[in-house]
Design brief:
Blueprint (H helix, E strand, L loop, with lengths): L6 E5 L16 E5 L3 H15 L20 H14 L7 E2 L5 E9 L5 E3 L7 H10 L5 E3 L6 E7 L4 H11 L9 E9 L2 E6 L6 H8 L7 E6 L12 H45 L4
Length: 282
């Protein structure tokens, strides 16, 4: 979706059917035929209540403070959580007031990750790499449906979760290249919020319950808006170019298929109209 600067829309106040994407509401101002000053005031009030910064992962989002729970509230929530799950992934209370449990993290990575090379290189190859100062490693794409369960504590922070996930898959990339996101679904819309390094994912899991639609955790690239391309190796940069080319080709293919389908349906509708118009009752 293109980024809109500002639009003024002329609307019929008696038969208004104005519809807008939720991320564009704050950028659109209605100009109706009624009193202009009253309309502007109403629009300003609407704008204040419709800006949803936590749905735009391209912008910096301030992470809200985590809900503080008393020991009694934690005990009650853990009891309710364990009563809702159909597996053995229970949460357990500790004597010090903390608790442990499992979280499931989905991988939604579009860039390749790097792992150490297999230990089958010859002594000659190893000596060449040492002399040239080049660190050998292998890059590959993780499948889109990859997910991992982690057993963590209520005190485990988001940054530690990322580091543990990379260690599980023996990924040698800098953990700073990745970020943990909170994914929720409301009213048919998907919302993503980037977790801060200090947030505790298990606390979010406990407060939301075990339902993945209510809340799920996703590992994505850490989009800061300014990419430091010097931090990537030449093979990674070449992979990025190939990836962008494939995405462009796939996007063009989808557009062509969409318009071909629309053309076919219009031709079928024209043929049906011609057939019904040409036939006369006997």
């Amino acid at each position: 979706m293109a980024i809109l600067d500002q639009y003024s829309v002329l609307a019929d106040t008696q038969n208004c059917r104005f519809t807008c994407h939720y991320r564009c509401r704050a950028l659109i101002q209605l100009d109706c035929s009624l009193d202009r000053s009253s309309i502007v005031e109403q629009t300003c009030v609407l704008v204040e209540h419709t800006i949803e910064t936590d749905t735009n992962v391209d912008e910096q989002v301030e992470s809200g403070k985590q809900q503080e729970l008393s020991v009694a509230e934690i005990q009650q929530k853990v009891k309710e959580y364990n009563a809702q799950i159909n597996s053995n992934l229970f949460m357990n209370l500790n004597k010090d007031g903390s608790y442990t449990g499992f979280i499931k993290v989905q991988f939604k990575l579009v860039r390749p990750v790097s792992v150490p090379p297999p230990r089958k290189g010859t002594a000659t190859q190893d000596s060449v790499c040492k002399k040239s100062g080049v660190k050998r490693r292998t890059s590959f794409y993780l499948p889109k449906d990859t997910s991992k369960h982690l057993h963590i504590s209520s005190r485990t922070r988001a940054r530690e979760v990322i580091e543990a996930l990379l260690k599980k898959f023996t990924v040698v990339d800098n953990p700073g290249k990745f970020a943990l996101f909170e994914r929720t679904e409301r009213h048919g819309q998907v919302f993503l919020r980037k977790l801060s390094d200090e947030e505790c994912p298990l606390h979010l899991r406990l407060c939301a319950g075990p339902n993945e639609k209510t809340l799920s955790l996703v590992l994505k690239e850490n989009e800061t808006g300014e990419v430091n391309w010097d931090a990537f190796s030449m093979p990674e940069l070449k992979n990025f170019l190939r990836m962008l080319q494939r995405e462009e080709e796939e996007h063009v293919k989808q557009i062509m298929q969409r318009y071909a389908l629309a053309r076919t349906r219009m031709q079928e509708a024209q043929a049906a109209t011609s057939a019904s118009g040409g036939s006369t009752p006997g």
